């Protein structure tokens, strides 16, 4: 009778160990799958971040070109304004305009 009780306890203990190992093994697999999904999500997010960084750099370069263009056009208007106000320059009327043309050489006629 004692041996039967010991065998039952042994069988119950062994079945508990098997169930515990099975649960632990299942948890390890679930954990591994979650790690794989997290790495995949990280890579997707990093790829998207890289795309946004490239787009930001392109926009910054375009912004710099636009600032240079704005300064160029602003400088042209400023030069014209200063020429009129400080140097009293003006565009002459057609009656005061003289067009000088150079005679064409035979090479230029071709």
Automatic annotation (TrEMBL):
Membrane topology according to the record: Single-pass type II membrane protein
Known role: Essential cell division protein. May link together the upstream cell division proteins, which are predominantly cytoplasmic, with the downstream cell division proteins, which are predominantly periplasmic.
Main location: membrane
A Gene Ontology term for the protein's cellular component: plasma membrane
Organism, scientific name: Acinetobacter amyesii
Family classification: Belongs to the FtsL family.
Localization of this protein: Cell inner membrane; Cell membrane
Residue stretches spanning the membrane: 18-40
Keyword presence, Transmembrane: yes
Key words of the record: Cell cycle, Cell division, Cell inner membrane, Cell membrane, Membrane, Transmembrane, Transmembrane helix
Gene Ontology biological-process annotations: FtsZ-dependent cytokinesis
Alphabetized HAMAP family for the sequence: FtsL (MF_00910)
Protein name (Swiss-Prot/TrEMBL): Cell division protein FtsL
Annotated coiled-coil segments of the chain: none
InterPro entries: Cell_div_FtsL
Record's subunit section: Part of a complex composed of FtsB, FtsL and FtsQ.
